[in-house]
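Today's session is about reading a structure prediction critically. Students often jump straight to the picture, but the first step is always the sequence itself: look for stretches that repeat, for charged clusters, for runs of hydrophobic residues. Only then move on to the predicted structure, which in these notes is written as discrete structure tokens rather than atom positions. Here is the chain we will use throughout the hour.
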Amino acid sequence: MNQKICRKILLTNDDGIDAPGINILERIAASLADEVWTVAPATDKSGVANSVSLREPVRVEPRGLRRYAVHGTPADCVALAIRHLMKNDLPDVLLSGVNNGSNIGFETVLSGTVGAAMTGVLLGIPSVALSQDRWQDAQPDWRIAEKFCQPVLSHLLRDGLSTEYCLNVNFPNVPEEAIRGICVSRQGIGKVKGLFVTPTTDPHGENYFWIRVEHGITDLPEQSEVAAVAGGYISVTPLTFERTYRDAWDNLAERLNRFSLSSMR
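Below is the predicted structure for this chain, in token form.
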């Protein structure tokens, strides 16, 4: 008797097809589905969000049975999988990750991991982004993701997933005994302060630059992802494409409704 929850799962990420996080996810997905496909970037594509390669060709390299390395972005991977490689027999769900580092608050705007899940939803596939929090500039301890990813996904898949939003799941960077449960969270601001630029010079004397995300001390708004993960909870946030700030919309609408077109002439 088949005990699998899904018939077919599609995997991708932004860390690249050889990253340890997607290898963990391949093992977990094999316990959940009859068939697992991996279509992931050939190299690290972190920080590219939902970008797609509109002005250059995208090449696909077979890496074994139902495994493909794509020379493009995570969104390219999803588009190629759903609109080409798997177009005649679509996956039941897309899983993106497990990312090396959190995708919390503003990080979700930059994240290729979340971008891939958003692209999956755009193309009509229920999608989940998964990330393992870690100390800044340190290697992640994958044990929490390895331990809890399968039961979390099992529960989510059995209850059914929507195509109106993707789910953003973050595993906290705490010992197993410190995990307190699952928390349905909201995005919040997170721990990104901005971006910093480091100039340097190559061996030929030419200037180039490294751009990095700047993290800093943050507050912990109630029900936010950053508060949930800091408290030892696995955070689960439903994310949509809608970014309209409602309070500003109301204020702006009131101001512009009083604006006279004649004053522009």
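Discussion point for the tutorial: The chain has one domain: 6-189+220-264.
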